[in-house]
């Protein structure tokens, strides 16, 4: 089974509901929307990410013979239902915000319109894909905002919660504005620029630190970055200064040194002084080691002469906000609007659109959440991406998505760009038409 595309990568209740829909002959069109109920602490906006993987999943949705055999043998489903699944495909429509769009609570970033069995089955994987990349992109952009112009590299694969998480975190971080990733497959699969240096083990495996530096430089003459904190950071910096002229004579230019432990600000200041005094002003300083946007902000506030940062564990796990309170809910079935009215989890009914209004200076002013056909001033955010199970256009390059993301983030009001919670939350108006529909649905339900 292909883990990433298998329809069995779902919750059991999706399949038990499909069996029940099948038994009851329920085939009408259902409309589901994905949204986030609340912003996590210290977040003033979120960035959409993961739509491309959702579209790929829907395009390729089908049960393999082995999966059908397993379902038939597990004893939970009827033979007729399993035969029905043999030709199961996604034939619905997908509307969504483009990846990289800033959004806010209760705004649907994706809508799926399809026969109810199709729209229901995909729920778990759709949430899984959208939730994770949105979470990581929304974390990554905070470092981008704190360190404009600095090299930012995703270092988090080894401590990500699984292989797919590490790979998709590299994609989401690049989308959000990171310079690249150390994850090689992200380069092969998504054209994410790759960055890497060396490990402490390489230095330890050599009897002499200078010899380790020199041999590594000859192995990688166009990408020479030395890790200098294996033993004594400042002593290693002195060795780099002595080695640099010899390498220069051989046409090898040292790009940077990397610091990975200790007081990074203090070490960076001392190393910069050593390099400059030794005539190595062009050698940069790259830092890693339990970094996040808060640590980066403090280092830069200290005036630490650091040119780039490797951010790993705290990014790929979104450590300070490890999940989003998100949902994928039915808003219409068989042409009738529907809403959930559970305490604390009520939803808005009907197919929706969001109109974004901008101030005179081009920054975001407010959004209007309304029904799909209730036109308002502003730019509509939800666009069609798939019709009758087919994409409406080819996949956009990640580089183009990344540039659009930067343009959209640049339009956010300054008070939303700070790391702490803004005292002025962004305004999302609920239109009268949407409120009236909710009241009408409630009256009908009663």
What this model shows, in words?
The chain has helices spanning 12-24, 51-59, 65-73, 79-85, 116-121, 123-146, 163-175, 184-190, 200-204, 209-219, 233-249, 264-277, 293-301, 313-316, 398-409, 432-445; strands spanning 29-38, 46-47, 93-96, 102-103, 110-115, 151-154, 180-181, 224-227, 254-259, 284-288, 308-311, 325-333, 336-337, 352-358, 364-371, 379-380, 383-387, 390-391, 428-430. With 446 residues, the chain is of the alpha/beta class. The chain has two domains: 12-136 and 321-445, Alpha-Beta Barrel (nicotinate phosphoribosyltransferase); 197-288, TIM Barrel, CATH 3.20.20. It has a seven-stranded antiparallel sheet with strand order 13-12-1-5-3-17-18. It has a six-stranded parallel sheet with strand order 7-6-11-10-9-8. It has a four-stranded mixed sheet with strand order 16-14-15-19. The longest helix has 24 residues, at 123-146.
Structural descriptors:
446 residues, alpha/beta, nicotinate phosphoribosyltransferase, TIM Barrel, 2 domains, 7-stranded antiparallel beta sheet
């Amino acid at each position: 089974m292909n883990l990433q595309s298998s329809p069995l990568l779902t919750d059991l209740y999706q399949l038990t509901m499909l069996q029940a829909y099948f038994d009851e002959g329920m085939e009408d069109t259902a409309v589901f929307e994905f949204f986030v109920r609340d912003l996590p602490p210290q977040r003033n906006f979120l960035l959409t990410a993961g739509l491309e993987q959702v579209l790929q999943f829907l395009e390729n949705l089908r049960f393999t013979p082995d999966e059908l055999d397993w379902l038939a043998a597990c004893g939970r489903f009827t033979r007729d239902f399993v035969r029905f699944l043999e030709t199961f495909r996604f034939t619905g429509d997908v509307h969504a915000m483009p990846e990289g769009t800033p959004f806010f609570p209760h705004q649907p970033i994706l809508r799926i319109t399809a026969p109810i069995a199709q729209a229901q089955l995909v729920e778990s994987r759709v949430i899984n894909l959208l939730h994770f990349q949105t979470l990581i992109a929304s974390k990554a952009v905070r470092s981008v905002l704190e360190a404009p112009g600095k090299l930012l590299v995703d270092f988090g694969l080894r401590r990500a919660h699984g292989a797919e998480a590490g790979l998709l975190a590299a994609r989401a971080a690049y989308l959000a504005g990171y310079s690249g990733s150390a994850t090689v497959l992200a380069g092969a699969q998504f054209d994410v620029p790759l960055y890497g240096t060396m490990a402490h083990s390489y230095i330890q495996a050599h009897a002499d630190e200078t010899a380790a530096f020199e041999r590594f430089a000859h192995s990688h003459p166009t990408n020479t970055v030395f890790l200098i904190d294996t033993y004594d950071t400042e002593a290693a910096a002195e060795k780099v200064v002595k080695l640099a002229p010899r390498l220069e004579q051989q046409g090898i230019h040292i790009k940077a040194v990397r610091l990975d432990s200790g007081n990074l600000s203090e070490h960076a200041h001392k190393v910069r002084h050593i390099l400059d005094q030794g005539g190595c002003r062009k050698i940069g300083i790259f830092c890693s080691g339990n970094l996040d946007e808060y640590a980066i902000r403090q280092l830069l506030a200290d005036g630490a002469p650091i040119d780039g940062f490797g951010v790993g564990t705290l990014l790929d796990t979104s450590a300070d906000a490890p999940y989003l309170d998100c949902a994928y809910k039915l808003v219409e079935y068989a042409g009738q609007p529907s809403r959930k009215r559970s305490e604390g989890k009520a939803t808005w009914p009907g197919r929706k659109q969001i109109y974004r209004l901008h101030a005179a200076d081009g920054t975001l002013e407010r959004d209007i959440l309304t029904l799909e056909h209730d036109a308002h001033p502003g730019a509509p955010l939800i666009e069609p991406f798939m019709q009758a199970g087919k994409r409406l256009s080819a996949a956009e390059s990640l580089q183009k998505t990344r540039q659009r993301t930067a343009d959209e983030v640049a339009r956010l009001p300054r008070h939303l760009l700070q790391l702490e919670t803004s005292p002025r939350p962004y305004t999302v108006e609920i239109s009268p038409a949407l409120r009236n529909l909710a009241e009408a649905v409630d009256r009908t339900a009663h």
